[in-house]
Fold N-acetylmuramoyl-L-alanine amidase domain-containing protein.
Amino acid sequence: MASPELVINALTIAAGGALVVERVTEYLKHVQKRLDQQQAETYLQQVELDAVEQALHDVQQSPHSNDSQNASDDFERYASVPVIDNVQPSLNRAKVRLFVRLAPLALGIIIAAVMDLHLLALMRGVSVAPMADVVATGAWWVAIQQWLDTLLSGVFIAGGSQPVHILIRFLRARSALLPPPADQTELLTASPAAEAMPALLDYQGGVKPLTLDKVHRRSGDPQRIVVHHTAMHSASSFDTVVDEFLVNKGWLTGYHAIVMPDGQLHAFCRWDRRGNHAKGHNDRTLGIAFHGNFHSDGSDAWSNHDGRYGQLQPSDAQLEAGARLIAAWILLYPAMIGVDDLVPHRELLGANTVCPGNRFPWADLCQLVQRWLVTWQQPRCWAELQMLAQRPYLYHAQAPVLTRPAEPSASESSQAATSISSPATPESQEARHG
């Protein structure tokens, strides 16, 4: 499967090349139009000169020109209008037309060859080795296939931007049906089988953090955490969720974090900036979305009562990872004190939504968050949380000095570690999904 970076680079090259081809084609057509106009003007001038010469010749050859002139004085005279025949195609004109037709095609092929572009391989979802390596290994059939792929990619680019847009829509629709890649994580994957002690959260500012440097600033650090579901197909990728906000809706931000069904955690919006997830409540909240549609009311046209959007409830790994991040947020931001600062989207004042769905196991999530709050306070975990607090893109102003809550008792620590590290029993699974 081709990596997302490779897909983005290939589409960028194709779109840029198509734009160059369109501009060159427009210029060549303009030049051709000017040449045709000049040829028509030259032909008209020649016709007029021939008409004048013919008239002079007729006057000189007519012996009764004066008599005919006098005889016709009583009649109204009209100026002769030269009749212009269709311009006969010349060899030079044919050459110009052929050049205008073939130049964009040649330019598209040159761009594809120079940039080593392989759009067919991209649509098939396979990676392509450098041509030099293929030739060095003697795999001539593979080299021919790659050369033909580049040739067809050049023809594709020569068609302009419209075919590229069609390809982008095709790949976007195709990616929505594929499972997310295993290596596209910004935060460490967490699952019920993970070890009791969580690893450091590798937060780097989310998607395109520099675009938010001067916009969407908070009035202060977060005070609450809003829980959502994406209401999208659970098998679609993280990039599909990002595109829904940044491309389809044209927004700069979205959720602050997204939890995938397999437990992968992705940062989306910078945590020190207002997201775009809960109208009227974005300034002092963090938004976390569990990927999927967990609403099963059949009267709702967008519900997932028949499984059309994938899984009907969050997976165990998804709840575990989401609870782990929520507990870390509660401890990172001084304005929050516990599970009471957690709220489903539908319960916000003025919210007209069912998010995160009537099948979302809210009680189970709160219980897991409480357990992770205890786990994060253990010495090694607390040290890692302090390191995370020093990273950029976390706070409205200067990073505070984290104050560790009261030391949990030995029985509480043991119970929390056992609850997190041990697989869920059938009874607990039934409660979570029932």
